[in-house]
Design a protein that fits this description.
Blueprint (H helix, E strand, L loop, with lengths): L1 H14 L3 E5 L3 H4 L1 H4 L2 H6 L2 E5 L9 H13 L8 H19 L12
Parallel strand pairs: 1-2
Length: about 110
Amino acid sequence: MDWIAEKASVTLAQTGRLTVVVQDNGSAHTSRLAQQQWLKWQAQGLFLFWLPPYCSEMNRIEEQWHQLKTHEIAGRMFEHEVDLADAIIEGMQARSSRGNYSLERFIFNSS
């Protein structure tokens, strides 16, 4: 989220607009470590909101994931995790191209 907060800071400085991220209640989103950053992120123009618990129908990523599984990777088998990851990336790129929307990829820090 620090990366998104940095982008939010630039957006705020250039346009005066805030950045809003809507998240589910995953432990990574609500962890103590994340909570310690909330005020800093708000100062950078990034505000977080959470969906109600157990409310997947309101989570737009769930809809996208369903479409991706149904159309782009349906019926395929993958030998390795990286093959699945590549198929997901290719599927998302195809969906964004067909839907005429931009797609930005970022890598989570897993350390």
